[in-house]
């Protein structure tokens, strides 16, 4: 893909070559000083424009590079925060699972205690009454 400055440079170069070739075609007639200076000025001008375009591209690339470095830094920060949140959630999940296990043990112990109490009540009920029947 040719940028406009590259196209201008190519056009100037082609024009300079055409001027030089036309001088050769008209029979060993050399370019006069004005023609040589004009051709040289066009050539220099084309190189100056190309350099300016290159400088603009460098600045544009540097700006894009900085923008992408900033985006990468934000992404790394967000990723670090997400990892911290994930680790915290995993710790909370482990604590909740442990607490759930402890609660189940408490339920089991309470159920066992209730069954023992019912059995003991049944034993007491089957014994003779504390007050003699009348």
In terms of topology, how is this protein built?
Elements: H1 4-25, H2 33-126
Helix pairs in contact: 1-2
Report what the structure shows.
By secondary structure, the chain is mainly alpha-helical. The protein has a domain at 4-23 and 39-96. It is 87% helix and 0% strand. It has 2 helices and no strands. Helix 1 (4-25) packs antiparallel against helix 2 (33-126). The longest helix is centred in the middle third of the chain and has 94 residues, at 33-126. The mean pLDDT is 83.
Structural class estimated from helices and strands: mainly alpha
Mean pLDDT: 83
**Poorly predicted ranges (pLDDT <50, ≥5 residues)?**
none
What best-fitting shape do the alpha-carbon axes yield?
A: rod-shaped
As a whole number of angstroms, the C-alpha radius of gyration is 47 Å
Largest sheet: none
- Work out the number of β strands: 0
Distance between the termini: 120 Å
Q: Fraction of residues in helices?
A: over 70%
Beta-strand content estimate = under 5%
Give the H and E element order.
Answer: HH
Give the number of helices: 2
Please name the defining characteristics of this protein:
134 residues, mainly alpha, 2 helices
Short summary of the structure?
With 134 residues, the chain is an all-alpha fold. It has a domain at 4-23 and 39-96.
